[in-house]
Amino acid sequence: MQRFLIRRALIAIAILLIVSVIIFAMSRAAGDPRHVFLDDYATEEDWEHLSAGLGLDKPYYQQYFIFLGEAVRGNLGVSIQQGRPVMEVIWERLPATFQLGLTSFCFSVIIGFPLGVLSAVRRGTVLDTFAKGMALIGQSAPVFWLGLMLMFFFAVTLDVLPPYGRQQTTSIVLPAVTLGWFFVAANLRLIRSAMLDVLDSEYIKLARAKGVPPRTIIWKHGLRNALIPAITYAGVTLGGLVTGSVVVETVFAWPGLGQLAIQSLFGNDYPLLQGVVIVFTLMYVMASLMVDVLYSYVDPRIRYT
Amino acid sequence: MANEGQERLLVAAAPSRIGEGWTLRRFRRLPIIPITILILFIVVGVGATWIAPLDPTKTSLRDRNLPPAWLEGGDSRYLMGTDHLGRDVYSRVIHGARISLVVAAMVILVGNTIGVVIGLISGWYGGWVDEICMRLVDIKLAIPTILLALVLVLALGQTFILIVGVLAITIWPRIARNVRGEVLQIKTLDYVALARVAGASTPRILTVHIFPGVINTLIVLTTLEIGIVILLESTLSFLGAGVPPPTPAWGSMVAEGRDRIAVAWWICTIPGLAILIVVMAANLFGDWLRDVLDPKLRQLA
Fold first, then answer.
1. With an 8 Å Cβ cutoff, is B254 touching chain A?
2. pLDDT of residue B181
3. What does pTM read for this prediction?
4. Which chain B residues are within 8 Å of A137, Cβ to Cβ?
């Protein structure tokens, strides 16, 4: 158990280091950040002065270690566009992203799990067909398009929900449904197929023969075992929520980290971009680490491998 | 070559399992509609230049934002209406199929090759080689894909080759992991040991004796990948980091129609619908193939 977790933690650290190298290299390759400040009338002196100011006159590996050392201490530099510390900007955006991510996650679990169970239990009925249809759309529709369609229908045509922003309490409904739908589909499919396997097993037959009420069999004996693949997948879900938020926040102008990533990317604001990607990766890695812990708790077999 | 002959005597080539599932009973459940859609997608993609009635990049300012032909105010020349620059949406959707098709084909080719080679080597050699390969897979699977792809594409330039490369990087780990799993099983089989005894070289064993055993898994995974790659490519296009304009890609078409959704819904609805239909067909076909060829993969949603 401990060995397993230590191993996962080491991998997590390796991932963070590798991502930091990639991000650092990419941000340097993205173009000269000095262009943002200087125009055609700037003198050679201005360029060099700015170089020294931004630390661009040092060799790359030194720039990287400076960057890494500062990053570990929580200092990710100053945003070029906003002229404020990157961490400050990120902290402002973090609550919105967490709110969206958590809501979508809950949505995907609350809808996906029961629907998956019911769809397996009532196999072949209208409910099953409906659930499978939901899952198919969720897995096949491009997230950005689904968001636009929901926006068009509920905000433009019916005018019952706000189309974008985060001003009203109901603002979260459309982005959360858009982001969560894909994972509703994933959870539903996983639970359904695991439930079908579980319901076919010997111990369920025994429980039935003993006269355990069907409700207890399905929700207690069945679902508990069918949860294992879903929990494994929850890591992917949490990670996917991070990536998905980039798209969904762009579509719905949700003021979170995803939107910030796109803004900094197209604004050539490399310190901010570095910061956002590192925070995103950190969230991603933490999520999968958490899932590993949960997983080894739910499925004891994993602890000894 | 005596060795070669001996090998042939002792060892039959690896049994291909492709034939096993194709009984008549299963044929009856052949998913006709998805297959038709996929074939249509390929035909339209390949023949876009001949099939599209109009030039997809030709603008006509007089015919801006015209609704589809079947609606009031529609023009019979523009079956699916026109966009904000007066370009024919129908022709653009057809040309968009070409981009999706070519990108998907290239990405799958490159990604599968990397995945298969790494999977074979990792499974066959085991030990530290395996350890390194699988940690690479872990690392890749733990990095947020879209974000990294965006950074890479915008940093190094929006070129076709780079987009294919970036997407190929995102799909190989899954292939590698599954191929490795298969290899671990196959390499313990008698016929592989016999091939070794007969003096077959490692590359020969891997390609002639082990690879055929992996093909089923590979076909299933590849079909399921089509949808993933098309979705990823269109997401990149939507965010402005796909194949550069004016080449019509489905994702960027949706992005262009986004701000006009209230006045001209068809500009972004139709290309998105095209993505949905093709990906759905690929997923349905992949599910069916998996049930027929490789039920073991069922857990893999």
1. yes
2. 86
3. 0.83
4. 276, 280
Q: Min CA distance, B17 vs chain A (Å)?
A: 24
B196 contacts B269 by C-beta, under 8 angstroms: no
Domain A87-298 falls in which CATH fold? MetI-like fold (1.10.3720)
Which two structure tokens, joined as six digits, stand for A123?
């196999």
CB contact under 8 A, B151 and A19: no
- Sorted by where each begins, the domain ranges of chain A are 2-72, 87-298
B151 touches chain A (CB under 8 A): yes
pLDDT in the model for residue B282: 92
B240 to chain A, any CB pair closer than 8 A? The answer is yes
Paired tokens of A153:
């229908």
Q: Do B147 and A11 touch (CB under 8 A)?
A: no
Q: Does A261 touch chain B (CB under 8 A)?
A: yes
Termini Cα distance of chain B: 47
Contact A22 B146 (CB under 8 A): no
**pLDDT per residue rounded down to tens, chain B (301 residues):** 344 444 444 444 444 444 444 454 555 577 888 899 999 999 988 888 888 777 777 777 777 777 777 777 777 777 777 777 778 888 888 888 988 999 999 999 999 999 999 999 998 888 888 888 887 887 776 677 777 787 777 777 788 888 898 889 888 888 898 888 888 888 888 888 888 888 888 888 888 888 888 888 888 888 888 988 999 899 988 988 888 877 788 988 888 888 888 788 888 888 999 999 999 999 889 888 887 876 666 554 3
Q: How far apart are CA B22 and CA B206, in angstroms?
A: 26
Token pair for A136? 């198919």
Say if residue B246 is preceded by a cis peptide, omega within 30 of 0. yes
Question: Which residue on chain A is closest to B225 by alpha carbon?
Answer: A140
Q: What is the pLDDT of residue B17?
A: 46
List the structure tokens of A42: 């700037």
Cβ-based contacts under 8 A for chains A and B: 136
Between chains, do A12 and B142 touch, taking CB under 8 Å as contact? yes
Interface probe for B, chosen from A8, A11, A21, A140 (most Cβ of B below 10 Å), is A140
SS (H, E, C) B157-175: CCCHHHHHHHHHHHHHHHH
pLDDT above 70: percentage of residues in chain A: 89
Q: Which residues in chain A have their CB less than 8 angstroms from residue B301's CB? A: 186, 189-190, 193, 233
3-state helix, strand, coil in chain A (%, to 5): 80, 0, 20
User: Coil, strand, or helix at residue B60?
Assistant: coil
In this prediction, residue B287 carries a pLDDT of 84
Burial pattern B253-283, b for ≥16 Cβ within 10 A else e, equals bbbbbbeebeebbbbbbbbbbbbbbbbbbbb
